[in-house]
Amino acid sequence: MDDHRYFRLDCWACYCYSVEKKNKALRRKYEQMMVNLKNGAVALPEEVQEESNENDTETESEQELTSKNTISADTVARILKKLATFEKSEKYLKKDLTISSLAGQLNTNTKYLSEVIKNNTSQNFNHYINNLRINYIVHKLYNEPKYREYKISYLAEECGFASSQVFVIAFKKINGLTPSYFIQSLKEDKVNIS
């Protein structure tokens, strides 16, 4: 009988330890987000950060050679300039945005657009758009406390996601924590409340 009691106590202690460890990890991610927001930095998906570290061994001349083989430098510069304008216009918030529709807006083709995005952000088109959308809503939540009172479904719709499930998955993938945790932490810390 005593063995069962000790076993349950051990299980309970392990559970409490793992919950505490998870909470500390979430808090560290939240605090890193706060540092990035205060410094004006944008979040990169965790997978892109890892890929970037791996790709640091590839030299710039190798990257330029790969890019020049398929697209001229002038075309790349033109597409990048148009992408910067696109990002400022917040047209990425449209739910029906596709690579074809964006290529049409930028007067280029999908192959070039896809390659420029991949070579300059280390992301495919969908991850690039999701990253823009999540960064948009993170800044809204940080800077405008009224957004913290909205439902997740509204926030998802506000930043262009078709469903709240996809929004939550993308938010967690990019920031390492859920939007609910982020919102709750902002409320507890009374961030940007006058």
From TrEMBL:
Transmembrane stretches, start-end: none
SMART domains listed in its UniProt record: HTH_ARAC (SM00342)
Keywords: DNA-binding, Transcription, Transcription regulation
Residue ranges annotated for the HTH araC/xylS-type domain, each copy included: 90-185
GO molecular function: DNA-binding transcription factor activity; sequence-specific DNA binding
Location of the region described as Disordered in the Swiss-Prot/TrEMBL record: 46-67
Listed Gene3D superfamilies: Homeodomain-like
PROSITE patterns named among the record's database cross-references: HTH_ARAC_FAMILY_2
Composition bias type Acidic residues, residue spans: 47-63
PANTHER family: ARAC-FAMILY TRANSCRIPTIONAL REGULATOR, HTH-TYPE TRANSCRIPTIONAL REGULATOR EXSA
The protein's name: HTH araC/xylS-type domain-containing protein
Classification of source organism: Eukaryota, Viridiplantae, Streptophyta, Embryophyta, Tracheophyta
